[in-house]
Specification:
single chain; alpha/beta; five-stranded parallel β-sheet; 33 helices; 21 strands; 49% helix
């Protein structure tokens, strides 16, 4: 093959459009303004007619870019066509400046070395260039590659004509910068057709790289397609940084399709991965010489058509099963054997929780399948769900934080089976779950499990008999630290640690929440008033106020006519969050001050603390949900769990099973259940030790100095009310605990030993006790035993299956009757 035969470049700089006609003076003004490449884009228009000012401007542009050879060519044309110009001072100065420029040529040996490096790296990715590399090397010596001062590349043909020219670096940077947010959020892969030069591909890779320090984070896949392998080597040989070259070629996020069969290879790749988004942005640098045939668009369109046919077939099978189910027993017996579980990959907690529950269900004999993104660079389509349901034929579907109707809305079509029991595992107070529609979506065979609040049942229509209030569990297997790396434990060690991602200051949170609802002046005013009242509420000691109830009252007072859904969202996602955040940060600052005074090690693990205005020196970064987080719990002398809410937080459970010692902020919401349990114990098991109270026959009195249970109740009463009494007087007839009552904070830890209030003496006393290793280890062992018995994924899996076994027994009995 003749050198350059497969490089059909136009004999002019690459342009992004048709240049407008401009005058030589305009060309000079572009150069004066530093727009050298814009000037050079128009320069060829003057090459066929004698325009000395245009050639002078061209020479100035090439000199500014450091390209002596092309500057000299322009000056030679000028002085040959206009000999008198040689006597001009400005021309003499330009001739001198051009002669003084260093050689901008990139040696052929350097380009060859880079190309060999690229070919070797691509071979490891399955791209074989062993026949193309020698052919490319044969063309190398006949062409000239020049490096401009601004990092752009010029390539000259053997005849000296310009094959590659232009401000490709700036063009690539502008394109990516203008669309950066859309590119990062692209649900489908970004396809780059052509990497000569490679700046667009490199800029896209950099701009769409996610920060995954806090766990899995989405970054779209990048597909690089090049029909001509020699053109590919042209581009890759321009990358002068081996690390940059290696990152582009070896990144698992980048897929390569090279050669005339690139479209076919792409089609086969798409065919092998149904249920994945394959359509996305396609970008081509204007310097692309050899486009694919058929086009990338056509290849993707053909493959997606086949996926659509398979998806329709799977939906038909699902609908057929639904019809069969409806035609049979209207109250079918539910036997759980096959379970599909749904959770997004890009969460710090939800996906790990689903993984652990699936493992526990498998241990109980269930066949489980998790429907989730397979890697950090892909998004699912409805076809992923229809295929999984068609293949598994599940008896139960468990979905984190979404009802069946939610999932159909998210997917944009009805893909969820209607007759398969559905469990909505509620792990957060999300707006879409605080609606009447969410409550109505819990069907006759469905279940709402997890953090189901009384407000959701009483006001939003969640069916009481189809809820399973359950605390967030921990995984003893994942958080087992018995074989933890000693070096890891040592590196994470501290005396007092806090694991939380709530780094945003209360003031910043208030401003953000107001900004998020800035749809109207009225909505802004409402949120500002709620934020102000919630901030004022946080002045109350948390052990004296039920935060959720108080926040509900605040919202009712400000928007009395609002519908239940609006009230629920304003309560949970504005008022409660602000009050909770204030308590959290107050406790963190208090702990920091105590640790500094005691000269003990204090550490904060979590996202965002490195930007905190005063606490940044104590941040230790986020920890993945697994061995690192478990080791941090085990290595901390005391881990503070700070929340204004009363629910048993997952972090307490995980800290306990890892062998850590959790300290808990005492709130009215976690003190009240503990007081109720103690009162039941007194009235039920210690009635013979009590005494009658004159005038109050419905109560029974106990001296706190004679009975340990009474002492504990009296102490908790004092914490809540601010004053202790020498006796307690619970009701003789204590209400029985709710059948659906979740595992509480008081079930796991001794609140009087491990609880603290937001004052320095209380927290200081807890920190001091935790420095006693024997006391610390005894408390940690006691807490671990309590959590392992009742608050694990295995316990939750048993609860879930027991619910449906009970339902099956009920249905069988009803059918027989």
């Amino acid at each position: 093959m003749q050198a350059g035969a497969r490089h059909p470049h136009p004999n002019r700089p690459v342009a992004t459009g048709t240049p407008q006609q401009i005058s030589p003076a305009d060309l000079g003004r572009l150069v004066d303004a530093g727009r050298h490449w814009d000037a050079l884009q128009h320069a060829p228009a003057f090459s066929q007619r004698p325009e000395p000012d245009a050639w002078l401007a061209e020479a100035r542009a090439w000199i500014a870019l450091g390209i002596a050879r092309l500057a000299a060519d322009a000056l030679t044309r000028l002085t040959a066509g206009f000999p008198a110009a040689r006597a001009r001072d400005d021309v003499q100065r330009l001739i001198s400046d051009a002669a003084a420029l260093p050689d901008a040529t990139i040696p052929a040996s350097t380009l060859a070395e880079r190309a060999r490096f690229a070919a070797e790296a691509l071979a490891a990715r399955g791209i074989d260039l062993k026949d193309d590399l020698p052919e490319w090397l044969d063309t190398l010596s006949a062409r000239t590659t020049l490096l401009a001062r601004d990092g752009n590349i010029l390539r000259l043909s053997p005849a000296g004509s310009i094959e590659l020219s232009g401000d490709h670096r700036s063009s690539a940077a502008r394109l990516v910068q203008q669309s950066a947010d859309a590119l990062r959020a692209s649900a489908g892969p970004i396809t780059v057709e052509g990497v000569d030069p490679p700046w667009l591909a490199l800029a896209l890779l950099d701009a769409t790289t996610a920060d995954d320090r806090g766990g899995p984070a989405y970054s779209p896949r990048i597909r690089i397609i090049q029909a001509d392998p020699l053109e590919l080597l042209d581009g890759l040989s321009l990358i002068d940084n081996p690390n940059q070259m290696r990152r582009l070629i070896e990144s698992p996020r980048v897929r390569w399709y090279v050669g005339q069969d690139a479209p076919g290879s792409l089609q086969r790749d798409i065919a092998s991965s149904p249920g994945i988004r394959h359509d996305g942005p396609i970008v081509r640098p204007p310097s692309l010489r050899t486009p694919t045939r058929p086009t990338v668009e056509a290849a993707v369109r053909t493959s997606l058509g086949r996926h659509a046919i398979a998806h329709a077939s799977d939906l038909d099978l699902i609908r057929e099963r639904e019809t069969f189910s409806r035609a049979g027993d209207p109250s079918p017996v539910i036997r759980i054997r096959r379970v599909a579980l749904i959770a997004g990959r890009f969460t710090t907690v939800l996906r790990p929780m689903i993984d652990d529950l699936a493992r526990s269900l498998s241990d109980l004999g269930c066949d489980t399948r998790i429907i989730s993104e397979p890697d950090d660079h892909t998004r699912l389509t409805p076809a992923a769900y229809s295929r999984a349901f068609a293949e598994l034929d599940p008896d139960l579907i468990i979905c984190a934080n979404h009802t069946r109707d939610d999932m159909d809305r998210l997917l944009g079509e009805r893909a969820m089976p209607r007759t398969v029991p559905w469990v909505t595992w509620i792990q957060d107070s999300l707006p879409h779950l605080l609606t009447r529609d969410a409550g109505a979506a819990i069907g006759p065979l469905d279940l709402a499990m997890g953090l189901v609040t009384p407000q959701m049942i009483d006001e939003l229509g969640y069916p009481r008999d189809r809820t399973l209030a359950a605390s967030m569990p921990a995984s003893p297997a994942k958080f087992d630290t018995s074989a933890a790396d000693p070096a890891l434990l040592k590196g994470l060690a501290c005396d007092v640690g806090i694991m939380t991602n709530h780094a945003e200051t209360p003031e910043a949170m208030c401003a953000r929440l107001v900004d998020e609802v800035s749809s109207s002046p009225r909505s802004i005013a409402i949120v500002e008033r709620i934020a102000s009242e919630a901030t004022r509420l946080a002045d109350e000691p948390p052990q004296t106020v039920v935060v959720t109830a108080a926040c509900e009252s605040i919202v009712r007072g400000i928007v009395p006519d609002a519908d239940p859904e609006t009230r629920a969202n304003l309560t949970s996602n504005v008022a409660v969050r602000i009050c909770d955040r204030i308590y959290r940060h107050r406790a963190v600052h208090l702990a920091r001050a105590i640790c500094e005074r005691r000269s003990v090690r204090f550490a904060i693990f979590g996202q965002g603390w490195d930007a905190h205005p005063t606490l940044a020196p104590h941040e230790r970064g986020p920890l993945p949900h697994g061995p690192e987080l478990a080791a941090a719990y085990a290595a901390a002398g005391l881990t503070l769990n700070i929340t204004a809410l009363g629910s048993f937080h997952q972090r307490i459970a995980e800290c306990a099973v890892a062998g850590g010692l959790p300290g808990v902020l005492l709130t009215r919401a976690n003190c009240d259940p503990a007081r109720a349990a103690l009162a039941r114990d007194l009235a039920t098991n210690h009635a013979d030790e009590g005494f009658d109270i004159a005038g109050r026959p419905e109560h029974i009195g106990f001296a706190t100095y004679r009975n340990e249970t009474a002492r504990r109740l009296g102490t908790l009463n004092g914490i809540v009310s601010g004053r202790e009494t020498p006796y307690v007087a619970p009701m003789r007839e204590q209400p029985a605990p709710a059948a659906n009552e979740p595992f509480g904070v008081h079930d796991a830890i001794d609140l009087l030993s491990l609880g603290f209030t937001l004052d320095e003496p209380s927290l200081d006393a807890l920190i001091a006790r935790s420095l006693d290793q024997r006391w610390r280890d005894a408390q940690a062992a006691r807490t671990r035993e309590a959590v392992a018995a009742r608050c694990t994924h295995a316990a939750l899996a048993n609860q879930l299956l027991a619910h449906y076994a009970k339902r099956a027994s009920f249905d069988t009995h009803t059918t027989a009757a």
